[in-house]
Specification:
By secondary structure, this protein is an alpha/beta fold. Helix content is 40%, strand content 20%. It has a 5-stranded parallel sheet, sandwiched between helices. It has a 4-stranded antiparallel sheet with strand order 6-7-8-9, covered by helices on one side. InterPro entries: CheY-like_superfamily, OmpR/PhoB-type_DNA-bd, Sig_transdc_resp-reg_C-effctor, Sig_transdc_resp-reg_receiver, WalR-like, WH-like_DNA-bd_sf.
Length: 227
């Protein structure tokens, strides 16, 4: 999943981001309500997690205006406010769930997974529950991958790279782009980690199939395409 966390407490934001990244998800964090609003409206996020008390614009206003602007991404509120009235108000703004602080990441993750399963099962939601290319299929919610119906077991970074490629079929992804997306490096560590990861993924996705999908363009990058 691609997740946006709008939270001004750096400790909580880091805690949430770290937890989801360990499950192979891509996470962006932002501390300001105004910035979060624009990122959520313009970004292609599968899930938005919003704190209520934010600088610039409070979380409830962010959610209301996002819904008014046509944003259909599932949203979870994080809040220190525990009263029934606060929870009702939060849900009435357009959020899909409400979790009070302090919370455990395992509960947040379980709620996110349940929410994604529920929403992806609804007809005509506009939520892309599965990604596919040719006979290769990836489910971001269940973290499962199949090709021609055969299950393929992937490590978290292999899964993250494949999801990235499936979201960009036919597009050449440079090593820098992959480093930024999979490892979240903003610099080149001068290693061959990308080549090694692509090699491992190719061995699992292409090795036993006649049609090869993962291709290397030497000196340029990698692309998901047919021969």
């Amino acid at each position: 999943m691609k997740i946006l966390v709008i939270e001004d407490d750096a400790t909580i934001a880091g805690y949430v981001a770290k937890g989801f990244r360990e499950h192979g998800d891509t996470v962006d964090t932002v501390a300001d309500g105004n910035d979060g609003f624009h990122m959520a409206l313009e970004g292609d996020y599968d899930l938005v997690i919003v704190d209520v008390m934010l600088p610039g614009r409070d979380g409830l206003s962010v959610i209301e205006e996002l819904r008014g602007g046509g944003c259909t991404a599932p949203m979870i509120i994080l809040s220190a406010k525990r009263s029934v009235e606060d929870r009702v108000r939060g849900l009435e703004t357009g959020s899909d769930d409400y979790l009070t602080k302090p919370f455990s990441f395992s509960e947040l993750h379980a709620r996110a997974q349940a929410l994604m399963r529920r929403i992806s099962s609804l007809p005509e939601t506009g939520i892309q529950s599965k990604l596919s290319f040719q006979d290769l299929c990836l489910d971001p919610v269940t973290k499962s991958v199949t090709r021609s119906g055969q299950k393929i077991a992937l490590q978290p970074r292999e899964f993250k790279l494949l999801e990235y490629m499936l979201r960009n079929p036919g597009k050449v992804l440079s090593k820098t782009m992959i480093l930024e997306h999979v490892w979240e490096f903003s610099f080149d560590p001068q290693t061959n980690v990308v080549d090694v990861l692509v090699c491992r993924l190719r061995a699992k996705v292409d090795k036993d199939f006649n049609t090869k999908l993962l291709h290397t363009l030497r000196g340029v990058g990698y692309v998901l395409k047919t021969d």
